[in-house]
Amino acid sequence: MLIIIGFFLCIWIFYFYKRLCTGSQMPRVCVLVVGDLGRSPRMNYHALSLLQSGFNVDLVGYAGSALLPELTESEQVKVHYIREFPSLLNKCPRIIAKVLKALWLTLTLLTTLLFIPQPQWILLQNVPGVPSIPVCLVIRLIRRCRLVLDWHNYGFTILALNFGSGHRLVTLMRFIELNLGKFFDHHLCVSAALKKDLLERKGIKAHVLYDRPPERFKPLAIEERHRLFMDLAKEYEAFRSAGEERVECTRFTRKPRNGGSVEWRIDRPKLVISSTSWTEDDNFEMLVDALKLYSEAKKGENNSTWPDIVCAVTGKGPLRAQFERDITANPIEHVEFLLPWLEPEDYPRILASADLGVCLHDSSSGLDLPMKVVDMFGCALPVCALYYQCIRELVRDHENGLIFENASQLCAQLQQLLSNERSFLLEKMQQKLHMKARSPSNRWHHQWTQVVLPILNGLNGHEPDAKKDS
Fold it and tell me: What is the radius of gyration, based on Cα positions, of the chain?
């Protein structure tokens, strides 16, 4: 009863607040993420494009990782952090604590969205969509704003990984996402497969907004790569090399101190990189198994054709600590793992400095596309990607990467592409990606202005052709 009274009291206070405040003359959009704002790159890119298009932006979500500097330094962007659940209440019995968390999140979302400056639009990320979807529908009634739902995936398929598809919680989340989500004014989604599924399930007509890299994801010259390796060598042993008196060395590059040009070391290992949020959606056991096969093949044949590998896996998440314990307890000969957490400005640089990207994303729905691959393509980095239902919308065999289905296939691809002998296939894929990276039409903001900006301006959005832009 106190919760209900408190809620209506907040609404009553809000109306007085609204009368006292004057609205901004510039259009205003609230970008909402029920998660760490800094680890929601697509929503950050939405905010950046809104800013570049003359909108005021309110970013709402949890504190944590750093936001893009362009957002934090702009006076047109206001960040509103959702209050965390009080740790004291975690001492309650588990079921009671979960109920209290749900109520807490619902009320904190309601109060936050009631007291931010009046938005014309709320742009919500799904997943997660519970309780944010019903909360946004309530806010629309009160504040008379319009709603856009950006479908990244289905939350109920992710929940089903732990509980099974028939569990009551999964059924409830499916109902909320699909039956309430359809009442949003407009819908965006990340793939043509997801667009088709939304239409077939609930008649939801979504605009496909493919992930595209922003300008900061770009190829680097060898001199810039050398500077990055020198910086990383200060913190990570995997990049260090025994110094030479007249040469500035890393484990990958060398530069004469008399001012000569940077060159690759002949004995360098190959840098393989993967990015993950360390959830069940990423199958890293397959990567470990593939690298074990690679190591055994190199030892068995005494084959100098295949180099040693430094495998960097970036990101934070719940399964990271267990993976680190496993690889520490079971090292792989000729393979060195590195688990860095990089500053936002260094992440594009290390992608552009790697030899090959690997994507282990195994979609819970089979309908989403991994943004990590998009970032790699922006840096002209070819990718080996795990097969699932719609991955070919993004990765095309022998054009921008290779697709594998098991550890043996991935091992064979590593041997083919990382060989110390010249790999014509790798060079061909790099050249095609370099050409695409130079085209503005393959960048995020160009596509955003075609699809999202017309919606916000009251026009019909135009969806770029997947075959041209992927």
Answer: 24
